[in-house]
Amino acid sequence: MGCTDATAFNFDTTANTDDNSCIEVIEGCTDAAAFNFDTVANTEFDPSTCIEVIEGCTDAAAFNFDTIANTDDNSCIEVIEGCTDAAAFNFDTTANTDDNSCIEVIEGCTDATAFNFDTTANTDDNSCIAVKEGCTDATAFNFDTIANTEFDPSTCIEVIEGCTDAAAFNFDTTANTEFDPSTCIEVIEGCTDAQ
Fold it and tell me: What are the residues facing 2 on neighbouring strands?
């Protein structure tokens, strides 16, 4: 007694009487460690049909999607867009996917109250200069050599040359500058009546 069907999985060459025990041949991968192990298969004619298990991230939308993986290992990382250039002004330490948003570092004075405030700068370079008000007209009488800001040009005083010696004959009350003291005339008292 036995399976007498030569095409059956359990064909018994010694049997001469069929006992209805024949099992149909079901081809597939019978390697339990393979990716495509077939639990119902009973015949593996080509072992090369079994596929090795390759673990990795199988989510195509993930940052670390592995194109050769066939078994997910829960290692998928969410895509986080941002600037990934460490030299950029807006470098994002949490980003893993560059979104072309990187901004170049532009150094300069970023203090809006400073004399040399740079509207294009995004990174302070400690070059800020404090505002110092005063007369910045080098031709003015009260020119301030350390001033860098002149909010009111009327504060500058015009240079008026003349004799500034109050004891001199030609003392000029409006003069504020005397380049040549020899221009002052000494007062000489006496009778000025030519008659």
Answer: 18
Helix ranges restricted to H, the chain: none
Q: What is 18-37 written as a DSSP string?
A: B-S------BSB--TTSTTB
The band of 176, judged by pLDDT with boundaries at 50, 70 and 90, is confident
End-to-end alpha carbon distance in the chain:
176
Alpha-carbon distances, residue 20 vs 1, 15, 23, 41, 43 (angstroms): 9, 12, 9, 20, 20
Euclidean distance between CA atoms 136 and 148, whole angstroms:
7
Spatial CA neighbour of 148 closest among 120, 116, 107: 116
pTM: 0.52
| Distance between CA atoms of residues 172 and 158, nearest Å | 15
